[in-house]
Fold this sequence. Notes:
This protein is of the alpha+beta class. The protein has one domain (2-253): Deoxyribonuclease I, Chain A (4-Layer Sandwich). It is built from seven helices and 14 strands. Helix 5 packs parallel to helix 6 (173-184). It is globular and about 45 Å long. The termini are close together.
Amino acid sequence: xxxxxxxxxxxxxxxxxxxxxxxxxxxQPDILCIQETxxxxxxxxxxxxxxxxxxxxxxxxxKKGYSGVAVLTKKEPDLVKAGMGMPxxxxxxxxxxxxxxxxxxVSVYHPSGSSGDKRQAFxxxxxxxxxxxxxxxxxxxxxxxxxGDYNICHKPIDIHDPVRNARxxxxxxEERAWMSSFLETGFIDSxxxxxxxPHQYSWWSYRANARANNKGWRIDYNMVTENxxxxxxxxxxxxxxxxxxxxxxxxxxxxxx
Length: 257
């Protein structure tokens, strides 16, 4: 069994101070995909994870205190690849891949468009380029687990107030259409594959007691290629982890690495 967890920690150093290592030790993921490290390479807390038995790989943004992704793994991968070979995106530290035999895991942090029209346009261009990149990557690496913060709720069931948020970045019609088209390229939303229940969220605003009232958004995903469908064994959202405004999302695959 492979235990995969994706977690936007909203600052890895802050999450460490809030007890992230203790949580990792208890959760025991085989692969932990982290987003929004907000840390430069020399600021990644490798030691804190090394003593737990994890090898840590990170891809940081050029801009300090911004974006950044990482992967923690108990087993050393065959290959680690940072970025997509697209400088405009790689400078923001949004994509990190690790390979084990035929199986690849990606930690990805999709841009947010909430700060204005310019970043929304950047997000839509990224989404288009990302889909094209993964379509090509699948030809080389057909068994993919693409975990991370997608910054999109796909369907009304994935957001607490779909009517009021219908014109809000993260639930725009064009973003939701992109998600449908991405899945149609041969990916499965592993959580929804096993769990059709409403009120399942992975992010809550810090405002108005949103988390306490479970007024959230499901924007964090473990996407898998369709050829892994019969390996999906268990999925869960883990809201008891309180190191961030996001919470971890779990996927267990009936495989070994």
